[in-house]
Specification:
metal-binding, 132 residues, metal ion binding, heme, mainly alpha, iron, 3 helical TM bundles of succinate and fumarate reductases, Succ_DH_cytb556, 4 helices
Length: 132
């Protein structure tokens, strides 16, 4: 038998509910979620391309979903994730180079990412609706 002593009791880290959400932490979590959403959307993009290469009935079914309300919400969200992940990735590249690491700069660049995401997402959908 071992005569090892009991481990020292250490306090547990406070639960996430104790912390107040901050813009920087929410943007970090959202960046990860956007990456997952982009992967899911990429699977749908592959389905769409395969349907386009297949017969007309298969493509019509996929096109029907893409033009439905649920499909448009999905595609709008995917577009927003694409722009968000792009702009937040650029923000991280600046951080890697040592720029914008001050707290006020991190908040300003986070707000800029959100504004750029909204402008580009809405702008691309408006342009797409005019082209049709």
């Amino acid at each position: 038998m071992s005569t090892a002593e009991r481990p020292v009791s250490r306090p547990l880290s406070p639960h996430l509910q104790v912390y107040r959400p901050q813009l920087t932490s929410m943007l970090s979590i959202t960046h990860r979620a956007a990456g997952i959403a982009l992967a899911v959307g990429l699977v749908w993009l592959v389905v769409w391309v395969c349907a386009a290469a297949s017969d007309a009935d298969t493509y019509a079914a996929v096109a029907w979903f893409n033009t439905s309300v649920l499909g448009r919400i999905f595609l709008f969200g995917w577009t927003a994730c694409l722009f968000y992940h792009l702009f937040n990735g650029i923000r991280h590249l600046f951080w890697d180079a040592g720029y914008g690491l001050e707290l006020k700069d991190a908040y300003a660049s986070g707000r800029a990412v959100l504004v750029a995401t909204a402008v580009c997402t809405i702008g691309s959908w408006l342009i797409a609706s005019l082209v049709r």
